[in-house]
Design brief:
Layout: H1 8-18, H2 25-38, H3 48-57, H4 62-78, H5 80-83, H6 91-99, E1 100-108, E2 113-120, H7 129-146, E3 153-159, H8 163-170, H9 174-187, E4 192-198, H10 202-211, H11 217-220, E5 223-226, H12 229-232, H13 252-265, H14 267-272, H15 290-294, E6 297-301, H16 319-325, E7 329-333, H17 338-350, E8 355-360, H18 368-376
Parallel strand pairs: 2-3, 3-4, 4-5, 7-8
Antiparallel strand pairs: 1-2, 6-8
Helix pairs in contact: 2-3, 3-4, 8-10
InterPro entries: CRAL-TRIO_dom (IPR001251), CRAL-TRIO_dom_sf (IPR036865), CRAL/TRIO_N_dom_sf (IPR036273), FAR_NAD-bd (IPR013120), NAD(P)-bd_dom_sf (IPR036291)
Protein name: CRAL-TRIO domain-containing protein
GO molecular function: phosphatidylinositol bisphosphate binding
Length: about 375
Amino acid sequence: MLLVQPSPELQSYIRITFNENPQTRQRDLDSIKTWLRQQPHLPDAWDEQRIMTFLRGCNFSLETCKRKLDMYFTMKTAVPEFFRNRDVARPELRQILKQAHLVCMPGLTPDGKRVSIAGASPDFHLTNVADLFKLLTMMADVRLHAEKFGVAGDVYILDAAATSLTRQFLKMSPVLLKKFFVCVQEAYPVKIKEVHVVNAGPVVEMIMAVVRPLLKEKLRSRIHLHSRLESLHQFVPKDLLPEEYGGSAGRLEEVKENWTRTLEEYGGWFKEQEGVGADETRRPGRPTSYDTLFGVEVLQVNCSIKSPPSSRITFRMGDRIAELFRDRTVLVTGGSGFLGKVLVEKLLRCCGVHRVYLLVRSKKGKSAQERLDDIFSNVRYT
């Protein structure tokens, strides 16, 4: 079985968690269906099970559900690299399914949470990062239909053991990462209760420095790092984990094969949904600005700035720092703040960096490029 459904007792608990009232549930569903028909930029109809999953994920708040559904269909149009050509028979997707470990475990925790695992084999090689995110959204779409009674939340286990995966993560486009996290946090009715990073080493800290600014504060506080599996078992019951993670829920490869078959079975649905998304030309009011939606641009900084004689600095003990960054490409988050500006100045004047990228968001009516220009209009950079 792909996903074990909650027992009647657990269903009652989950209904309380979702603020779900069986007596008004159908009325709420009908209300959302009517609302969809009234939106000229959204599809007139969608299947009831998926709408019900959105209602549950939004605690049956109709307004929250409307916003989430609008964002879901908006993202389907805004990010075609995630939502087009979703055919697991394609060689590039098949290769990821073979080398990566992307599974949602069939069982539920005693309090009704679902456990998902993401990792990779040592020889994992990713040609196109968007294809990895595409598979993850495909699995999320399957769950919208397969979670018949809902779950009380999600627990994610990210395995950092594959050094090839962590190295490739550091090469990922921050803009693409931002698109994925907007999908996860804004477009899907997911309740992320815990995130566990296992086999965490020094490289993971570097990755977290890039990822944390893209996450909501509530989610940041739910991330746990584990250098050993024993500490993971204090949070996740062993009977829900595969044997490779010290559990008794079968072999990971068997769960992978089950998910691969399921994605193949949903092939017809994925094809039907190719053209289902928000039509911004028909949206009432102003169409969605994708620059505002993702709120971040990665801008390259001119590294040919020369230090005048009066500003040349001898690092002394800092020589090691200068040597560390010499001829390197550096990504800076928070570079528009006071300390960030100082950091960028030191990198440019004293460290001989090859290239600097700043992660800058649109803010207060100014585009990312305009904010970058404001930063460099300061005399310290000229």
